[in-house]
Amino acid sequence: MKITLQKLVDNKLFEWSVVVVIIISALLIGAKTYQLSPWVEQIILFADWAVTLFFLAEIMARFIACENKKRFFKNGWNIFDTVIVVVSLIPIQDSEMALLGRLVRVFRVLRMVSIIPELRILINSLLKAMPQLSYVMLLMFIIFYIYGAVGSFFFAPINNTLWGDIATSMLTLFRVMTFEDWTDVMYETMSLYPLSWAYYISFIFFTAFAFLNMVIGIVVNVLDQEKTAYEKMLAVKKHKLTQLDRIERELKDLKKLLDKTHKNP
User: Fold this and answer.
1) Residue 72 vs residue 98, higher pLDDT
2) Where are the alpha helices (DSSP H) in the chain?
3) How far apart are CA 52 and CA 33, in angstroms?
4) Does position 181 have pLDDT exceeding 80, yes or no?
């Protein structure tokens, strides 16, 4: 049974079936935001419970197919899937916690990440890159703070709304970094300080170009490591399944041999 369920869980058709059900779940959530007739709401309610029961069967199949049951709950995605499914089973539609029930069903769409390996790799890479990214973000904050203080000192008399204090200046600089009408801000200060263009160009160079490329480089590096680790894991799993198939065939052959022996002693 475990071997059969393992083959089912690893089957691409099963994986995409789960994806289709997640999409249906998302459509049901979207449909609930419209004004619907009572009979349509009843159909959606039955469909929602059918989706929940499908997810329950799917998570149970994955749990039974897992070789090490303790290791199953060491995986954060498995814990997330289990919590979502278990909370979805609680009948809180007509209670004060109805809002919580709706929110949990909204988060079921996130199960798309736990089901599709490529999305899982992207999220894991982003999480593992966070410690390195934090130093880049800290350096970026220092640059924002310095440029914000300078901008507030020089440009506050020109436009107090954009440069009145350091917090507002940093918000204005974020607008400049995202290229949201930043030339309007620059031309306004250039009316009093003609060389202020150097302030904006240097800031954009540091933040939008240099730091952004640092972030991309870190994420891509971690993503490559995650892909390599995932490919190794797939190779190990494929080897184990091959061994299980071989053992299964040998057991079948042994059983046939024993049956022949019993028939012809």
Assistant:
1) 72
2) 2-10, 12-31, 38-65, 69-72, 76-89, 98-107, 111-115, 117-155, 160-163, 166-177, 182-190, 197-204, 212-263
3) 19
4) yes
Task: Give the CATH number of the domain where residue 68 resides.
Answer: 1.20.120.350
Residue 259 within any structural domain of the chain: no
**Do residues 219 and 239 both lie within one domain?**
yes
Residue 258 lies in a domain: no
Q: Is the CB of residue 64 less than 8 Å from the CB of residue 2?
A: yes
pLDDT in tens, 119-176: 878 888 888 888 888 888 898 899 999 999 999 999 999 999 999 899 999 999 999 9
Cα angle, residue 46 at apex, residues 41 and 47 outer, rounded to 5°: 95
Which strand (E) or helix (H) includes residue 91? none
- Which structural domain, as residue segments, surrounds residue 169? 121-253
Pairwise CA distance, residues 101 & 90, whole Å: 8
